[in-house]
Every structure is written in C-alpha cells, then in structure tokens.
Amino acid sequence: MKTKGIKLNDVQQVSSIKALISQAVEAVGDQDAYRYRHKGQECSVTFREFEQQTIALGTGLANLGVSKEHVAILCENRYEWICTYLTVLKSDSVYVPIDKELPIGDVLNILEDSESTVLFYSEKQEARLMEQLDSLSNIRYFIGIDREEDSEDGRFLSYAKLMASGKEKYAQGDESYTSQTFDHNAMKLLVYTSGTTGIAKGVMLSEHNLVSGVYYGLQVSTIFHRGLSVLPYHHTYEAIPGILVAIHHHVTLCINDNLKNVVKNLELYKPEHIYLVPAFVEVFYNRIWATAKKGGNDGKLRMLIKVSNGLRKVGIDLRRTLFASIHKVFGGELKKIVCGGAPIRPELGEFFDSIGVTLLNGYGITECSPLVSVNRDDSNDCRTVGYPLTCCEIRIDDPDEDGNGEICVKGDVVMLGYFKQPEQTAEVLSEDGWFRTGDYGRLNEKGQLMITGRKKNLIVLDNGKNIFPEEIENLIGRIDYVTEVVVYGHVNDAGQEESLYAEIYCAPEGIVGIENLEEQLKKDVATACSELPSYKHISKIIIRDEEFEKNTSKKIRRNKIVKQ
C-alpha cells in the first residue's frame, strides 16, 4: 500500500546533487554551511565557499585523469570528508565510503571488491596503509587529507595542493570537471553494509535514489536551521538524511569531531536538531536518570514530569523552564532528535516529549537510500516508525494471524542491487522492483509501520512457536538498571531451540545498592514479561561482565553471542 491522506511539507524538488548545492548557494550563499574545529581553531565555511571548494577539488581530480572511476575514502568525520563526498557525487565517478574502524584486512577487501582506483585518507590511517602498499597496487592515487607535500613518484598527493591546483586551473577556464555528465540512474554511491553478521555487501545507489531520499524524506519530516552531525559519515543514515538533507534545507551543520566531545559540542554549537541511533538515545536517557538519582532528585523529576504533562492538557507549556537544567546539557536549544537504525522503546519517546524535546523514530535500511518511513511532528507515535515516504509502496509479505510479515518496499529509494553479486541481488530484489528487507512488521490502522523484528533473528521453538526476540528485549530493557540485553533460543542436543535465554549487561553505576543482582534480575525479568504467553518467558538469565560487542552502527553483533 501507499501512504494516503497525510499532510505533506512543501519541499522544493531537485533533480541532481549539483542542483541541490546551487540552489542553496542561490538562496543563502553567504550563510555558514559548516562549522567545525580544526587544530583547536573554530572554522566555518559558507555555502558559496563550499561549492567553490568542491569545484576546485573536482577540477584537480579531473586533471589527474580521474574520470568514471571509483573513489574511496578512509577517514574520520571531518569537513574534508563532506567536501570530497559532494565533489565526487557531482562528478562522473562513484564514491566509496569505508568504515575507518574496520580491520585492515576488511579495508583491503573492500578496496579490491569495489574496484577503487583513488583513495582519500587521513593522517590517522597513513601508517597502516603504508604497511600494505604491496596489496594496494590497484590504487593509482593516495590523496592525504593532512599531507603537506606530494611524494616524488606522484602516487601520494596532498589534498590541499590538489585543491589549490584545481582552483587555479578552474580560474583559467578549465571545465574538465564542471562539464562532466553521467546517467542519473547509474551507480553513484557504493556503500558496504556493516550489518551484524560481519558479511559486507556493496549496495549500489544512484543519484536518483539519493535525491529521492532527500526530497520525499523532507515531505514527511522537517528539520531546523542548526544541526550537530555525530554519526559516522560512511553510514547512509548520516550521509543522506544528515548531510544531503542539511544542504537542501539550508542547515548550518556543525561537525562533531569526536564521540568523546559530544556533550562539549552540544554546549558549543547549541543545535536545534540531531540525528542519532537508539543506542545514543538510551545513553542520554540513562545518564539523565542516573544524574537525577545520584543527587536524590529522581523523585522530583518524576513529579515535575507529572505536573508539566498536567499543565499541557490545559494549554500551558512550561517544559523548557521546568527542565532547563536538562536542556542546558543539550545546549539549550535542542528541539528534535531524529532517531533511526532500529526501533526505540516507546517510553523514551514519552520521556523526551515530556521534557520538551521531540523524539522522532524512523525506519530505513541501506538498500533503501536509507529511508523508508518516519514519524511526523503532528502524529508522532514512538510505538511505530511512522508513515512510509510517498514514493514508496509497502507490502507485508505472508502475514501471520497478527498481521506481521516480511516488509517489502518498492519505489524511488530502492537500490540498484549488490555490486557484482547478481545472485544475492536476485534473492532480495524482484524483477518488478520489490525489495525484501529481511525485517518483519505490520501496518496499523493509520498506515504507520510497526517493526516486529529481524527475519534472521527469528527464534523457532521446538513446539513450533515463532518468537521475535526484540519484543522481549524491549520489555526487559525497561528495567531501569538493565543496560543491554539479548534474547536467543537455547539449542538442545537435537539441534532444536527449546527455551529462551536472556544475556544481560548492567552498568556498575546502575546496580549500586542491589545486594543480589541475579535474584533481582530473575524477579524483575519475570515481572516485565508477565503479560506475555508462557512460551515467551525467559528460562535462564546470563549476567555479563562487559558490554556486548558491536559494529560501528552501535548494533550488537548477535551472531557472536549465539556462537559463544
């Protein structure tokens, strides 16, 4: 079904990435597009300056003969990553972002599989790249973002010198970059999925996919004029809804230089919105309550929330006054958190709404550029992941008695396929355009999408009952001292999953005063799951001493737990 009858935001349509930037320059050319810190100094770049820098860098690349090639980047979040990204998106080449946290073996595999011939990299990556030069013969140029000089053999180049050379040539009339053209529906972005299984596939996205995600996403949910960019840029969630949407909406995007500096940068840049994954939201939520509890103010906070919600019912909104101390932690001007990557617990949405910050949850997957649905400000329901984009058709395949089935998507945001993997592409993408997401869910009576769980996480008990562990994990996760939990089926000698285990990690600061953690957990887990049918009850609890291993999207690597 397609979404019908919802009010859409008025959004200017664009047909290309080049138009996306030029329209921003025409509208707000002298406004800051980016703010960031470099070597302790505050820096800013206007939209006009940004466009000129992409042209300079692109002209420099074109004069190296870089055309219709695959250009990779291995670098932390920084302004130069964004400049390189938009430069390549406007060219006839393909952009290949690589997770900087990957082991060098995985990096080499991606560079080889992606057929990349140019690699941008930061100083932090240089040592390990130098150790692997024999395995990097396919890379014609290594462009060091922090490198001051070119190497004698011309293979290692300075980013700054390349841009300066391109700027000079463009000023002299060189149009080797600006005249490049390409197929709007051809591969433009090649993203290797991290997933939770460790098996990476190259997702091919076109320029049409990218601008569709921007345009149709803004139709459903808008943002404000100053944002803080936190999530890794090599993930499509930050690269498209974060970076590209910000350009379209003329946002001043402030770059968080390090995860350790998030709180400091919230205070410095005072963002009005921020994109996060559920793991970050959980951290903020837990810290707020831990701080209140430590100061003996948790009871007072609950009372203030109750009073505030009561006043709102009669039209009096004092949230930014009553919860000023919490708002100060977020910089004082935060209005919205857009959360994606996984469903969130409904009580988190209720809490942030109670203190005056809108928490919007959405659903997406890399193969869908990456947005499929998102909640709206005027109909926000954190039990759902919102309304599908108007360019998407949603089909629930083979639904059960509750209406839950595999979520299938068709529309302008669906990928071209997996790079050089036609068989794997055919497994998930039909000839008529339907993409099987591997996620299970249902549509409610309003047309909002509700996520049940991942197909690959499905537990089938020996009695034939199907269980999505995420449902039980959400209930256990509501226990205030539980930090992380994974539910899985215990396999008997016959190879059948006969019962449910819950592996739980509790942060030390949250269990102060609990004398017998195991007994307390048994009691609280039983209470949390009491309304579930008996076959969904936990038979054994395993207490962990440390957090679960995660990928760079902060998702737990479930396969590692089950193997152990």
| Radius of gyration, in angstroms, nearest whole number | 24 Å
Overall average residue pLDDT: 93
Query: Percent of residues in beta strands?
Result: 15-25%
Number of strands: 26
Low-confidence parts lasting 5 or more residues at pLDDT below 50? none
Count, helices: 18
Q: What structural category arises from helix and sheet content? A: alpha/beta
| Overall shape | globular
Strand order of the largest sheet: 2-1-11-10-12-13-14-15-16
What does it look like?
The protein is α/β, with parallel strands linked by helices and 564 residues long. It is 34% helix and 23% strand. It is built from 18 helices and 26 strands. The strands form six sheets. A nine-stranded mixed beta sheet has the order 2-1-11-10-12-13-14-15-16, with helices on both faces. The radius of gyration is 24 Å and the shape is globular. The two termini are 41 Å apart.
Q: What is the topological layout?
A:
Elements: H1 17-28, E1 32-38, E2 41-46, H2 47-63, E3 70-74, H3 79-89, E4 94-98, H4 104-113, E5 116-121, H5 123-130, E6 141-144, E7 156-158, H6 159-171, E8 187-192, E9 202-206, H7 207-220, E10 226-229, H8 236-248, E11 252-255, H9 262-269, E12 273-276, H10 278-294, H11 298-313, H12 319-322, H13 324-329, E13 336-339, H14 346-355, E14 358-364, E15 371-374, E16 387-388, E17 392-397, E18 405-411, E19 417-418, H15 422-428, E20 435-443, E21 449-454, E22 459-460, E23 466-467, H16 469-477, E24 484-491, E25 497-505, H17 517-528, E26 540-544, H18 558-563
